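Many introductory courses stop at the sequence. We go one step further.
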Amino acid sequence: MNNFSEMTHNEKRYYRVDEVARYFRVSDRTIYRLIETGNLKAIRIRDCIRIPVEEIREFEDKSIGSF
C-alpha cells in the first residue's frame, strides 16, 4: 500500500487502533502514544477508541513532509 487512501476503498470513516498500527507497521502501543501526545486525534465511544480516516491521512501527510 502506498497511502491510506488505498486502504479506505470501502469508505470506512473510522478505524480501530490495531488497524492503524497494522497499516503503519508499528505496535498498537505506538498508536496509543501518538493519541496520548496529541499527534494523532481520536474519538472515544465508551471503551472503544476510533481514529477518523481524515486524521490518518493528515498525519501521514505531515509525517511524509517532515522526513
